[in-house]
Design brief:
The chain has 146 residues and is mostly helical. The chain is 75% helix and 0% strand. It has 6 helices and no strands.
Length: 146
């Protein structure tokens, strides 16, 4: 994994979190169309399970899995953010990296916010991107082992 791929994974993480949240909402909203069926008078045990109860159990299991996955994705995002602050000393360069890789701003947007030319931002970015090579190579080694 290159340093740039390491930093750009945050965009993928955010998209994945959004997708998981949308899937959960879809599953959750589908439950509201169901009704609880009370066909038994209690004297005899029904051989059919309550479909609403089964659906709720299924949604709760899915919700738990999704929460765990979102939690792991958020940890990855936080790791990228921490590495920006750990590996780069200059506050201006930190802000450039945060705006580019955490806020997903374009070079033109960053240029307007910071009052620097796009060329100068690219120069600062290029000079500091190599700081992430150790983190991204360690990550690549871990991914190849898994």
């Amino acid at each position: 994994m290159t340093p740039k791929e390491y930093l750009e994974q945050v965009r993928k993480i955010d998209r994945k979190i959004t997708l998981l949240e949308e899937k959960y909402e879809e599953i959750h909203s589908s439950l509201y169309g169901r009704a609880i069926v009370y066909t038994s008078d209690g004297a005899k045990k029904s051989s059919h399970d309550n479909s609403m109860e089964n659906a709720l159990i299924c949604v709760l299991e899915i919700e738990e899995k999704m929460k765990n996955e979102i939690k792991n994705l958020i940890k990855c995002r936080i790791d990228v953010e921490k590495s920006i602050h750990t590996l780069i000393d200059d506050p201006l360069v930190q802000e450039i990296f945060e705006r580019k890789y955490l806020l997903f701003q374009t070079w033109e947007q960053i240029s307007l916010k910071l009052n620097y030319s796009v060329v100068h931002l690219h120069r600062l970015h290029s000079a500091n991107i190599s700081a992430f090579s150790s983190v991204s190579s360690n990550l690549s080694e871990l991914q190849s082992v898994s």
